[in-house]
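Components:
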Amino acid sequence: MEIFVAKSSGFCFGVKRAINLANKCASETQGAIYTLGPIIHNPQVVKKLEESHIFAKKGIDEITQGTIIIRSHGAKLDELRAAKEKGLNVIDATCPFVKKAQDLVSHLSDEGYSVVVVGEKDHPEVKGLISYGSAEIRIADSPEGLQDLPRKKKIGIIAQTTLPMEKLEAVVSFCLNKASELKVFNTICNATSIRQKESGELAEMVDCMVIVGGRNSANTRRLAEICRGIQPRTYHIEVADELAPEWFRGASRVGVTSGASTPDWVINDVVERLKALESK
Amino acid sequence: MEIFVAKSSGFCFGVKRAINLANKCASETQGAIYTLGPIIHNPQVVKKLEESHIFAKKGIDEITQGTIIIRSHGAKLDELRAAKEKGLNVIDATCPFVKKAQDLVSHLSDEGYSVVVVGEKDHPEVKGLISYGSAEIRIADSPEGLQDLPRKKKIGIIAQTTLPMEKLEAVVSFCLNKASELKVFNTICNATSIRQKESGELAEMVDCMVIVGGRNSANTRRLAEICRGIQPRTYHIEVADELAPEWFRGASRVGVTSGASTPDWVINDVVERLKALESK
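Structure:
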C-alpha cells in the first residue's frame, strides 16, 4: 500500500501565526490567558494549549481580567470593544487575510454598497466579518440564500476566506442580475484553493482518501466533501486511533490530506499508523 | 397553423430613438446628411432612409461637409473629434445605454482598473466603447479569449449592451481568478435579455421559429442561435420573400420574433405571408 500525503496539508500561514503568538504569549505572560472560542478548529491543539494554561472561553462575558487572544478567525467588533473596556490585554491573532476581508466589508459599507458576504452563517469568521458592515449586510453561500434580495443600485461582495471558488462564482453570477454595479473582492485565501485543488487531484489517483482534521473545522469538512465527490472511499478522522483496517481492504494507494488547522504531529501519527496497517 | 409573434419583437428604445432623430433631421436639414456606417443593422431601413437622402458612409474620411448622424451603436472618440474638427453638424443618435457604457469605460480607466469589455471584437458598439478607455483595454466574449491575461490588481468589466447574460457571467467568473478586486457594470440592456428570454420560451412551444432581421445584426443572429438550440426548425430571414412553404410542412404552431433593429412593417409582412401560406 503506497501512501501519498498532499503537499499542501498541515497548518496554513494564519493558523501557524496564531499558534506561534499563543505560545509566545504563554511563555511571556504570568496571568490568565484566554482565547475567545477555540483558537483554531482542532480539539487536539486546543487540548495541548490547555497544558500551557491557555483556555478557550465561549464569550467575552466569561472573561473579567487577564490576557485575551483573538483567534485566527477574528472576532466581532463589539467583542473587541468590550475587551478594551474591560482593560484586558488583547493579543490579536486574527489571520491577516481575514483582517483584510474585515477592512473590505467596512470599506464597501462606507462606499454605500449593499454588502453580501459569501460564506456560512454560523462560521465565526463570518460572524466577525459582518460586524464590520452596516446592519443590512447579507450572508449566503449560494444563490438560493439570496432569492428574496431586492434589486439594489450597487452590491459589494466579499467571501469567507476558506470558501470554495465555485460558491463565490455562483453568488457573483446571481448578483449580476440584481444590480447594475458590482464590486467584488476575491478574499478566498490562496492556500485554501490550492489545498482543495490538490486534494481533489490526489483523490483521483488513489483508491482511498483519509482527511485529517477537526470535525468542527469547516475547511476540513469541505475537503472531505470535495474528495468524497471524486473518491467515495473517503474517511474524515480527527486522530490516528480512528483508522479502521477494513477501510483499506484491497487499496493499493491511499491519499492523506488535512485541513488548515491540523498540526503536523497529528498528520504524522496518521501516516505512521497507515504504514503499520500496511505491514500487517 | 397558428402564428405567435413575440411581444418584445420590433425596434428597441435606442433604435426607435435613432430612427426618429434621423427622420427629424431629414425634415429639417437642407444639405447632405450622412450616417457613420449603417444607422442600424437592417438593410431595409437603410434603403428607406436613402429615399430621405440620408446616406451611410463607411468612414469619417469620406465626409467633408454637411450633417453627420452618429448611429445607435455609437462612434469612436477619434471619429467624433474628427467630425468636430471638420465643422460637421453632429446629430448624436447613440443609444443612451451605449452612451452610459462608454462613460463607464472611461470611469474605470480613470480609476486605474484594467478594463475588459465583454463583447464581439468587430462589433461597431465595441469598437466605439474601447476608444473611451486606455490603450491596454481587452475585448473578449468568452474566457477563452482571455487565457493570456496576466494577473492584475483590479479588473473593471463592462459588457456590450446586446450580449447574452451567460457570456458576461462566464467572463466575470474567470476574472475572479485573475484579480483580487473586480468592479463589474452590468451594461446589458434589459430589452435584449427580455427579448432573448421571451424568444427562447416561444421556441419551446412552437414547431417552427422564424427570426426576422438583418443578417448583419449581431443581436438578430444571436436570437436565431438561441432559438435553434431549442427548436432546430429555426429560420433567419430578412424579408417575407424568403419564406419557403416547405419549412412549415406539418407545423401547427409557428413563432415569429425579431432583432432590435427590425421595423414593424417588415415583421408585419412576414406575418401576412405566413397567414397566406396557411390558407393555401
